[in-house]
Amino acid sequence: MKNWEFWQGSTPLHLVWNGDYYYMVGVYDNQQSVCNFRVDRIANRPAVLDEDGAPAPEGFDINDYINTTFRMFSSEKARVELICDNDVMDSIIDRFGEDVTTCAYDDSSFKAVADIAVSHVFFSWVFGFGGKVKIKAPEEVKETYSDMLNKAVEEVRK
Predict the structure, then answer these.
(1) Helices 139-157 and 120-127: crossing angle, nearest 10°?
(2) CATH architecture group of domain 77-157
(3) Helix, strand, coil share (%) of the chain residues, nearest 5
(4) Disulfide check for 73: which of 85, 103, 121, 131 has CB 3.0–4.6 Å away?
(5) Which of 12-16, 95-99, 113-117, 118-122 has the lowest mean pLDDT?
(6) DSSP element (H, E) containing 111
(7) Are 23 and 15 in contact (CB under 8 A)?
């Protein structure tokens, strides 16, 4: 194993600050799968690199990766439509970047469309807006969120 390889056969690409932690965004040896590891959780942390360890997968963009991943929790991505109160526009741009697709929905809200790594971390982000951000589509994402909320309510009522 070369000195730039780290944690179970992956190669670092970028060091990213996200949600109060540093993450090493890397690529597995096949160079087609992107991964991330919280730096403070990596055993035998690697030395800072003087050169790139391996090329990123074709088409990989670190900014897209960061904007679609919540708290660096990787999961399957989906194109998600959100209905948002107008007063959360800055939060949507902060989260998804200035290129996020938005359009007016009605007088008091807008629709935002983004590719999102759908996970419980994304759902907690939506929940944190207290109803000012709603999942409109796809239906599967809405149902997963609803199921998670219902399970939480059941646990509270026990």
Answers:
(1) 80
(2) 2-Layer Sandwich (3.30)
(3) 30, 35, 35
(4) 121
(5) 12-16
(6) strand 109-117
(7) yes
Q: Give the pLDDT of residue 130.
A: 95
Q: Where do the CATH 3.30.70 domains begin and end in the chain?
A: 77-157
Instruction: Give me the half-sphere count of Cα atoms (radius 13 Å) on the Cβ side of residue 125.
Output: 23
DSSP state, residue 93: H
What is the distance between the alpha carbons of residues 150 and 66, in angstroms, rounded to a whole number? 29
Q: Is residue 37 scored above 60 in pLDDT? A: yes
The strand pair at 77-85 and 133-137 is best described as antiparallel
List Cβ neighbours of 142 (8 Å cut-off, separation of 6 or more).
135, 136
The pair of structure tokens assigned to 46 is 């690697």
Tokens of residue 157, six digits: 């009522």
Neighbour tally for 67: CB within 10 Å: 19
Does residue 46 carry a pLDDT above 80?
A: no
